[in-house]
Design a protein that fits this description.
This protein has 384 residues and is α/β, with parallel strands linked by helices. The protein folds into 2 domains: 5-280, Queuine tRNA-ribosyltransferase-like (TIM Barrel, Alpha-Beta Barrel), CATH 3.20.20; 288-376, no CATH class. The chain is built from 15 helices and 16 strands. The chain has helices at residues 48-53, 63-68, 72-77, 81-85, 97-103, 131-141, 159-189, 207-218, 236-246, 264-272, 282-288, 324-328, 331-339, 343-370, 373-382; strands spanning 5-9, 19-24, 27-31, 33-38, 59-61, 91-93, 109-111, 116-119, 126-129, 145-147, 196-201, 224-227, 256-258, 277-280, 291-293, 302-304. α7 (159-189) runs parallel beside α8 and α13 crosses α14 (343-370). The longest helix is centred in the middle third of the chain and has 31 residues, at 159-189. The mean pLDDT is 94.
Length: 384
């Protein structure tokens, strides 16, 4: 049984922003939704119970990293990712394509039409990922949402290379889709949960390529569409243009995921352009650096709690915030924890940042529903 579905509405006054519901075997995702990244099968320093309390509906696990450590045998023995992590909500895994990009400027990786040969950055062991291998791994992990194998071209890149990478991504999408059909048939016989698959739109910052890719990927019978290659060094204007080119060509009846984007102003941009889910490491990574979100503090809404000015500040991290960190501790205490490198500091800052982004997106969902999204955007980004 295909225990996956997507429904959406376009309330008035929202432009392309929309509200939706993604149903998966492990729960429902109300969209738009922020997706924190659990690179090593964990959102660093937080328990699954804490993630649930913070309103996390779905989180992202990297196929490449879990394949290398702890390895598929360990995860299979533990009953798949959900049981291994103790997280019983929806999970999305990537294809491994972005890690190929991140290793691509080193001698650790070689890309051919057949697949990608690479050496582990941990122990130097050699591995070979093909579209079929990527899908096999993701099925073994047991994620609710999986992604077709793709090549993410570096930025900047030439039109010629971006075209070659896009065409390779399309060929790999066909192979990924075919492999997924076989796995789904096998899983159905074994009564395993349905795993929905997203195809990936590529094409770098070139309009003709992005439009071509959007049409080709949309023409395949994927459950959803992901947009890749928009967080690899291009500026915000270029990212916005990619969304403007691609979104009108995507089917309305399929969920859309934007890979690797999530700064505060980006959140408004991507939702305004019709994205349903988006993942980003920034809120958690910045938290571990002592940078916490505070409304109206700056254009990026960030303050560095490690600065001396907070050493004797007895106020909460953010006044009025209902998260555990803000209702129990002061800026001065958090400043102290970072100064002495106590692990609790990383945890509290992470709790606050995830709560902040999830609260923002929840408010955005309400604003879309009430037709006040554009007014909310002006208040947040332009103080109007």
């Amino acid at each position: 049984m295909k225990a996956f579905s997507f429904t959406f509405t376009h309330p008035k006054g929202s432009l392309h922003a929309r509200l939706g519901t993604i149903k998966t075997p492990h729960g429902v995702i109300e969209t738009p939704a922020f997706v924190p990244v659990g690179t090593q099968a964990t959102v660093k320093s937080l328990t699954p119970e804490e993630l649930s309390t913070l309103g996390v509906q779905l989180f992202f696990v990297n196929t490449y990293h879990t394949y290398l450590r702890p390895g598929l045998d360990v995860i299979k023995k533990c009953g798949g990712l959900h049981a291994f992590m103790g997280w019983h909500g929806p999970i999305i895994t990537d294809s491994g394509g972005f890690q190929v990009f991140s290793l691509g400027r080193s001698d650790l990786v070689k890309i051919t039409d057949d697949g990608v040969r690479f050496r582990s950055h941990w122990d130097g062991s050699e591995h070979f990922f093909t579209p079929e291998k990527s899908i096999e791994i993701q099925h073994a992990l047991g994620a609710d949402l999986i992604v077709a194998f793709d090549e993410c071209a570096a930025y900047p890149t030439t039109h010629a290379y971006a075209k070659a990478a896009m065409e390779r991504t399309h060929r790999w999408a066909e192979r990924s889709f075919a492999a997924n059909v076989k796995w789904q048939m096998s899983n159905a016989k074994l009564k395993k949960p349905y795993q929905a698959m997203y195809g990936v739109v590529q094409g770098s910052v070139y309009e003709d390529l992005r439009k071509e890719s959007a049409k080709i990927i949309s023409g395949m019978d994927f459950d959803g569409i992901a947009i890749g290659g928009v967080s690899v060094g291009e500026n915000k204007h270029e990212m916005r243009k990619v969304l403007e080119w691609v979104t009108p060509l995507l089917p309305d009846n399929k969920p859309r995921h934007l890979l690797g984007v999530g700064e505060i102003d980006d959140v408004f941009t991507l939702i305004e352009h019709g994205m349903d889910t988006f993942d980003c490491v920034q809120p958690t990574r910045l938290a571990r650096m002592g940078k916490v979100y505070i409304r109206g503090s700056s254009l990026d809404h960030l303050v560095d709690i490690t600065k001396k000015e907070f050493a004797q500040d007895a106020t909460p991290i953010e006044r009025g915030c209902a998260c555990y960190a803000c209702t129990h501790f002061s800026r001065g205490y958090l400043h102290h924890l970072f100064r002495v490198r106590e692990l609790l500091g990383y945890r509290l800052a992470t709790i606050h940042n995830i709560h902040f982004v999830n609260s923002l997106v929840s408010d955005i969902r309400h604003a879309i529903e009430t037709g006040t999204f554009l007014a909310m955007k002006k208040r947040w980004l332009y103080n109007k």
